[in-house]
Amino acid sequence: MFVDGVLKAAGDLRPVHDRWTGAVLGSVALDSAADVDHAVRSVAGRRRTLPAEQRSRILGRCAELLRERSDEFAARSTAESGVCRRETTREVARACANLEVAAAEAVRLRGETIPVPGAARLAVTVPEPVGVVAAITPFNRPLNQVVVKLAPAIAAGCAVVLKPSERTPLTALAFAELLLAAGLPAELLAVVTGDPRTVGPALAGHPLVDMVTFTGSVPAGRAVAAAAAGRKLLLELGGNDPLIVLDDADLDRAATLAADGAFATSGQSCRGIKRVIVTEAVADEFVPRLVAAAAAKRCGDPHDPATDLGPLIDEAAAAGVLDRVHAAVAAGADLLLGGTRKEALVPPTVLDRVPADAVLVREETFGPVAPVIRVRDADEAVAVANSTAYGLQAGVLTGDSDLFWRIAARLRVGAVNLGEGPQYDSPHIPFGGVKASGYGREGMRYAIHEMSVTKTMTVPYGG
Ligand code: NAD
User: Fold this and answer.
1) How far is it, in rounded angstroms, from Cα 372 to Cα 355?
2) Predicted confidence (pLDDT) per residue in 10-35, tens digit
3) Domains in the chain, please, with CATH?
């Protein structure tokens, strides 16, 4: 565990392996509930909030240090997550951008003055840090998932206890050390690791925690929400994001976007394309283009800079993806590419004519699968898009902007991108879901807002 600014071996140790070579990369502690209590108390002591300029400087300096050590962080992220090096290099660049935006936003926090109608009083509001934030993060993009929690918490003036995924803890611990090297006082950050069934509830339910921010699956999110009852909560959960391809779409671009969105991070991304919803009029022309774009992706050693898809996080995950693919075929889908696996490695898989109620597309399938669902028209596309429990993001490909606005108003998701896939994002814009995909918004400015509370002072005024 990382507490009081140093790594301490608390409890039993567990080795962490390279997902491709099996080499031991390091080891982490299996913290106990008592260790979690110690970590929370280490950041929950009485302290003054750092001035905004200092918070901004720390975040900016951290971005510089991360950029200097970009190769090392990308290599570590690839080794422990199996995500290919090409993508972890982009992940580090995105993490730097997130830190820079948080640094800029830290000095933009402000409240408002409200002349109270009918009373000779003025109200003045200021944002204050929510207090102690517990941050729980998933395995995919293990650096950036941590940065999107820690950077806004620091910008808002909060103290944080981080619990990274037990599958990718080393990146999180290395980033915590980087924050301290950038000047973050040790009493503002602790990291706990270990079995989520012990560490998770002990952290989310700790009486000194003021807010829990969680990113991960729906079942774990619901367990966290129960443990965190009574605290402020932000949940970024799973997605089942559609790319909707309509009659007048540019089909070459549609195929490229579909393949990039379905196979990035080997399909292990919350905002990856999980369903490709295509109108019948263009499906016969679109599907061969998608198969060609998928077949062009290289699958294998994630450390090789030419690789597009590394292995899934473990063999059980790969077996689960294949079970759903085979069930969809049994239900009438046509398997056009892939549908195999070698241990945890699953090549790009494309299916056509997938029934909209197949488990493959009804649930979130976290693997490199592009299932095409054929529909009559835009109305049916919206109905199919809305037919799952999830509602994170969507992409719509059409040249008809009136139609786009009509569709955007009817899609039950957190964001709709015209001419882009659901995977589009930026540190400057809100990100988050509706329905089972969670609630609350990330995106730097919005996450800082979530981690702040409004204090109101009223004073006599005029009259
Ligand atoms: P997961 O739910 O298994 O784990 C996420 C985190 O929760 C980990 O740190 C894990 O240790 C912890 N955890 C698990 N059970 C817990 C419990 N009972 N109490 C407290 N903590 C617990 O998810 P994963 O497999 O690491 O990541 C994949 C999932 O995350 C997918 O569903 C994906 O869509 C989702 N995700 C969502 C977003 C988003 O922003 N919406 C981003 C990335 C990933």
Assistant:
1) 9
2) 678 899 999 999 999 999 999 999 99
3) 2-238+441-457 (3.40.605.10), 241-423 (3.40.309.10)
Place of tokens 């003036």: 157
Whole-number Å distance, alpha carbon 216 to ligand 1 midpoint, is 2
| Distance between Cα 220 and ligand 1 center (Å) | 6
Strand order in the sheet with 113-115: 113-115, 121-129, 452-460
Q: Which of 42, 155, 137 is nearest to 452 (CA)?
A: 155
pLDDT tens digits, 164-202: 999 999 999 999 999 999 999 999 999 999 999 999 999
Pocket of ligand 1 (CB under 6 A): 136-140, 163, 165-166, 196-197, 200-201, 204, 215-217, 220, 223-224, 236-239, 270, 364, 366, 392
- The amino acid present at 65, given as its one-letter code, is L
SS3 14: strand
Q: Mind giving me the DSSP string for 319-334?
A: HHHHHHHHHHHHTTPE
